[in-house]
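Deliverable D5.2: sample structural annotation.
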Amino acid sequence: MKDRASRISGIAMAGALLFAACGASTAGEVADKAAEAETLLQAGKSAEAQQALDAAVEAFWKSAPLTFKNARFVEDAQGFGDYTAYSGNSFAPSANLQVYLEPQGFGWAEVADGYKIAFSSEIEIRNASGQILTKSATPALFEKVGRNKNREFQITVGFQLPALKAGDYVLVLNVTDTTTGRSAPLELPFTVSG
């Protein structure tokens, strides 16, 4: 029981520290709910403690900016955390690429069957000096509906490289959470081999 209380206390402290920079009203809500979770756990009320901790995490999640916990080139991806990483960042000309992302800080839209997570993503390829060489014609859309406010969501974007000369480039994904309107760019440098 003590180990579990220590874990919740650590989570509460991390949440409070992270939200100190985001604004006092949000930080207070996160810290208050985390402290409530710790108090309930110490009182032996683990189910109520879990609910209070979930409320603290949801308050944190709603106020956090859209970020990416994990972003990488992959060989393939089957689901959240279920992927085979690509070794390195060098590709043959006109190769097929896949990028795997785990976004954080996104929202949920309430729908008839539960909660919908929805993103759009646009691709740009830039040269080493930042000049845009090509970009996607239309955004790719990613959606999932679940009965709960799931925080485990992955985006896998696949595409074929255009015919690029050997050299260094940057893949830029402009990802937008369509529920909250929050956007975040992601840059992955890569090389086209000769």
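Annotation notes: The longest helix spans residues 2-20. The helical segments are 2-20, 24-42, 46-63.
The annotation will be released with the project's public dataset once the embargo ends.
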